[in-house]
């Protein structure tokens, strides 16, 4: 009796795109006296470029600030859990059958008729991030990218009935992203500290509108300068990242696009599962709600080819907003930087690799 699969495809539209969480790493440092010749050369620089503002003062104090403009190419992968609440359903039949606008699926006890279990999103992205150091302590940047996302959703309850064999649905889709960010950074003794904020808009193929994500990162690290080549360095840091997504999601999708081939191969079994719950376990109120929402969709899946449109609305959020970070960067010279960062400790696991090219600008 797996008729519940009729709803599952709708939830696979929830995609968490995290590639935008890449931050600008603070590389400004005061060169030690062991590199006295290099330090003196920094102090004697006549800096006549527009950015960063106060760049001349930073060099005069012996600080080796990064070139102000940069282009970073990033590859980012993430795996994390998602929560689904306040699910609403609508239906527009393509065959003249029952149709209805979005409505909640809540019974007489205030309980949602459909319950969700372990829902996960795995995504990867390639993005480009141009940035500018406006001041030696303030960096602003943009984010432009594309990626792929696979969302796996588990339905483990219908009404008050827990399913012994939870229903799993999986959908893959492309996602375009764009956003802006700002980072504030500075040194405290031998370490540097950076705080990064960005706001991105991510447009999955199967959603009507882009979803906004807000990311904050905090990092504390130290930069080790090469003795014989003080323009070359290696940095290590630890930190934490927080992500919060726009909660409300509304969209629509063809029935044929909402389910995979496995669903249609086992359609009779899914239909039987629904009717077994409806006839044996559903309360009268739950049956009444199902008659106005789930049953018309189930009937159409059973008899038609999936051209009708299912509308959906839901609140979704990541399972855990915070996770830990550990990263490292190798600066070959003032132009080239290579970076890697992993996310750990918590529900979210992530990996980043990036290449950054910097230049003086104008």
Task: Describe, in plain words, how this protein is organized in 3D.
This protein has one domain. The chain is α+β, with helices and mostly antiparallel strands. A hairpin with a 4-residue loop joins strand 14 (322-331) and strand 15. Residues 1-24 have low confidence and may be disordered. The longest helix has 14 residues, at 267-280. It has helices at residues 5-11, 36-43, 55-60, 255-258, 261-265, 267-280, 284-292, 294-303, and strands at 29-30, 63-64, 69-92, 100-104, 114-116, 119-135, 138-158, 161-188, 191-204, 211-225, 233-245, 248-254, 309-318, 322-331, 336-344, 349-359. The chain has eight helices and 16 strands. The protein is 17% helix and 53% strand. The strands form two sheets. Strands 3-6-7-8-9-10-11-14-15-16 form a ten-stranded antiparallel β-barrel.
Overall pLDDT confidence: 84
Q: Please estimate the helix content.
A: 10-25%
What percent strand? over 45%
What profile does the largest beta sheet have? Answer: 10 strands, antiparallel, barrel
H-E string: HEHHEEEEEEEEEEEHHHHHEEEE
């Amino acid at each position: 009796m797996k008729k519940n699969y009729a709803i599952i495809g709708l939830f696979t539209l929830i995609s968490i795109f995290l590639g935008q969480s890449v931050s600008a790493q603070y590389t400004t440092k005061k060169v030690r006296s062991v590199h006295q010749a290099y330090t003196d050369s920094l102090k004697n620089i006549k800096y006549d470029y527009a950015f960063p503002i106060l760049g001349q003062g930073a060099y005069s104090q012996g600080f080796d600030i990064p070139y102000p403009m940069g282009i970073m190419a990033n590859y980012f992968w993430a795996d994390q859990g998602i929560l689904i609440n306040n699910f609403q359903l609508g239906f527009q039949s393509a065959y003249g059958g029952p149709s209805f606008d979005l409505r909640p699926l809540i019974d007489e006890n205030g309980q949602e008729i459909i319950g969700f279990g372990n829902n996960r999103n795995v995504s990867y992205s390639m993005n480009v991030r141009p940035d500018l150091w406006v001041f030696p302590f303030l960096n602003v940047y943009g984010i432009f990218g594309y990626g792929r996302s696979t969302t796996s959703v588990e339905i483990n309850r219908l009404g008050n009935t827990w399913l012994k064999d939870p229903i799993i649905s999986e959908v893959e889709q492309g996602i375009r992203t764009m956003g802006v960010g700002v980072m504030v950074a500075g040194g405290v003794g031998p370490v540097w500290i950076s705080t990064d904020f960005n706001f991105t808009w991510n447009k999955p193929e199967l959603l009507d509108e882009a979803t906004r994500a807000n990311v904050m990162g905090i990092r504390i690290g130290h930069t080790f300068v090469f003795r014989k080549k003080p323009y070359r360095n290696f940095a290590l840091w630890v930190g934490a990242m927080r992500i919060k997504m726009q909660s409300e999601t509304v969209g629509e999708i063809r029935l044929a696009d909402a389910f995979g081939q496995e669903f249609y191969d086992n359609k009779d079994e899914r239909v039987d599962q629904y009717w077994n719950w409806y006839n044996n376990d559903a309360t009268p109120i739950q049956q009444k709600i199902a008659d106005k929402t789930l049953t018309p969709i189930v009937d159409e899946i059973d008899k038609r080819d999936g051209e009708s449109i299912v509308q959906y609305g839901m609140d979704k959020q990541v399972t855990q907003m915070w996770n830990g970070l550990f990263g490292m960067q190798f600066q070959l010279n003032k132009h080239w930087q290579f970076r890697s960062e992993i996310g750990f400790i918590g529900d979210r696991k992530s990996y980043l690799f990036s290449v950054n090219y910097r230049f003086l600008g104008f």
